[in-house]
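Review session, final week

We close the course with one last complete record, chosen because it touches almost every idea we covered. It is 1,2-phenylacetyl-CoA epoxidase subunit A, a protein from Acinetobacter terrestris with 314 residues. Go through it on your own first, then we will talk.
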Amino acid sequence: MNNQQQIFDQKIEKDISIEPKDWMPDAYRKTLIRQIGQHAHSEVVGMLPEGNWITRAPTLKRKAVLMAKVQDEAGHALYLYSAAETLGADRDDMMDKLIAGRMKYSSIFNYPTLSWADVAAIGWLVDGAAIVNQVALCRTSYGPYARAMVRVCKEESFHQRQGFEAMMQLANGTPEQKQLAQDAVNRFWWPALMMFGPSDDNSPNSAQSMQWKVKLFSNDDLRQKFVDNTVSQVLQLGLTVPDPDLKFNEDTGHYQFGEINWDEFFAILAGKGPCNHERIEARRKAWEGGKWVRDSAAVYAQKQQQQSQAQKVA
Ligand code: BYC
């Protein structure tokens, strides 16, 4: 084993973060670019189902809050793309791969938001699931990713609370509003559980990622934590969990839940979900439509640089 590899291994063992200029195995770099890139894309694509409701938010307050939340997600994507760039990834290349279907984004965003209650459910359940995953990532071994997660988690916690509050208002509203809330839970419960990825015995990347401490907990452990956290919130809202097999196990202290529809999950990963095509089309249009802005910004930056160099020489 070479010396650089030894230093890397020791840092991982002692929980010393790996920084951009440190030596790292190529496979570690590749794994991080894959995961951080997918995470960044999820933030960008995640703006679409919620953005769909900005013009139709029920009140001015809800509209303002939703706009701020969607804008936060764009900010999260920027931290994450920047973290991926510290590993040598190229942002344009990542975007091209997303549009060509060669890089993934979270399965959850391939479901439509059919009602306002779905927007509340996303804030509460989807951001809630994201927090469980991301709190763990605040201690991931790659420094820039871990630091980005600390900030993202603070904002996601706020999103989760506002989602719960919006849901509470619906659940305590008219019978029709309560039904909208229940329908949204029925639609988003299982997809939220799928966000944690395939079960541990079917997760090809987990063993190596856990050895490198890129992931600190397994997909199933985090999923269980989310279920344990969330069931009481559903009950508090006076709603039901759409899972006839759900029951609290006194011996383990955890909720046991039914079988996830993995066929549905893998179909979505293969591009066959209800909104996969629509989401990628929206990103393609935005990417192509924004080219002139990126080109102009690049020319402007170049001119600024030339000017400041000329001033230094003079
Ligand atoms: N969706 O070996 P596995 C958010 C892929 S958004 C799609 O377990 P890994 C928010 C996986 O990539 C939340 N693909 O993989 C934004 C792999 O495929 P490749 C986003 C999935 O990486 C806006 C294959 O399945 N959060 O916060 O060890 C509004 C095998 O899986 C999914 C993150 O991205 C999925 N659900 O573990 C509101 C968190 N699951 O790449 C909220 C960071 C798995 O080999 N990412 N795949 O072709 C992670 O923690 C991990 O990447 C995962 C998967 C737990 C997701």
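Two points worth writing down before the exam:
The first strand starts at residue 247 and ends at 249.
The pocket of benzoyl coenzyme A is lined by residues 34-35, 38-39, 42-43, 46, 73, 104, 106-107, 126-127, 130, 133, 194-198, 203-206, 209, 215, 219, 269 (CB under 6 Å).
Good luck, everyone.
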